[in-house]
Design brief:
mainly alpha, 2 domains, 0% strand, globular
Length: 313
């Protein structure tokens, strides 16, 4: 019949169009993936030191997340028979005076360093962004009072102020995060305030005022998102400082208490007495601290160059 002859042609045409559309979507998705991969490779080649810093940071995060699968020993388990054991098959990086595996304590120490570094950076950054945004947008007596308080806080160096805070709060994980986050506030507040002062005079802010938008909504919806780029750069740079400050506080006995494994406390326990008889107790924690700070600083410099419009070509 004539109708029966047309039906296969109609369905075959629909199937052909559907197949072409599906192929076009797959080609477009593949092009997007290829484009993102090419962009990633381009930035890696353009910023080789930043790539090295990113790899170090990824390795640090991987060690912190999968410490239980990476290590074969309990970092808190003691064994008198393995006291000051040299690096070997049983203990990859040796053992301390209490027979605890140094490699396990360094890997678990990465978790402590990241918790303190990221926690203090986020807490100090959030408070600094709030103060800087409020000071730069409201101006007047709010800006005057806020800047004088920030001047007082900046009178003391980061480590000295963290020592004062840690000594007054006592040694614990939460207190260490709080003690390091407070000295980070002034640096973030100054950067955000400077960006807010320039953004509040932009035409899109005046247009928002012209349509009757409230000042709070303008600050939160229009100005705050435009300050995230410098905040990300500053937070990445301050992460290394926070990790180093935590190691310094733990070295002085004011940071992470026992039995938590901390790189700074590992140096404090072994630097004076065993630096000659068991040098691995000093070398490996020192290398871990150096790599963590070095990697985060390199990553922060690369992110700053990528997000800086003057560096783009």
């Amino acid at each position: 019949m004539p109708g029966a002859d047309r039906k296969p042609d109609h369905f075959s045409g629909v199937c052909a169009v559907t197949t072409i559309d599906h192929a076009a979507e797959l080609h477009k998705a593949g092009a997007n993936v290829h484009g993102k991969l090419a962009t990633f490779v381009f930035y890696c080649r353009r910023h080789p030191l930043g790539t090295v810093g990113g790899l170090i940071f990824v390795a640090l995060v991987f060690a912190a997340l999968f410490a239980g699968w990476i290590t074969a020993h309990d970092p808190l388990a003691t064994n008198a028979e393995d006291s000051l054991a040299a690096p070997g098959a049983a203990h990859l990086m040796g053992a301390d005076v209490m027979g605890r595996d140094v490699f396990s304590r360094i890997v678990y120490g990465a978790r402590i360093s990241l918790m303190v570094g990221i926690g203090s950076t986020l807490l100090g950054g959030i408070l600094g962004v709030a103060l800087g945004l409020m000071s730069g947008y409201l101006l007047g007596w709010v800006d005057l009072v806020t800047q004088r308080v920030i001047d007082i806080m900046q009178a003391l160096p980061l480590l000295v102020m963290a020592l004062v805070m840690a000594a007054s709060l006592g040694p614990s994980l939460e207190n260490t995060i709080l003690a390091i986050s407070i000295p980070l506030i002034p640096h973030v507040a100054r950067v955000i305030r400077a960006n807010t002062l320039s953004l509040r005079e932009m035409p899109f802010v005046e247009a928002a005022r012209a349509i009757g938008m409230s000042e709070t909504r303008i600050a939160v919806k229009h100005i705050l998102p435009n300050t995230l780029a410098p905040f990300i750069v500053l937070a990445t740079a301050q992460l290394g400082s926070a990790i180093l400050t935590e190691a310094s506080l733990s070295f002085l006995g004011l940071g992470i208490p026992e039995p938590y494994p901390s790189w700074g406390r590992m140096l404090s326990e072994s630097a004076a007495e065993y630096v000659r008889t068991a040098p691995w107790l000093v070398i490996y924690p020192g290398i871990a601290i150096s790599l963590a700070v070095f990697g985060t600083n390199l990553l922060g410099d690369a992110i700053r160059d990528i997000l800086d419009p003057r560096q783009r070509s």
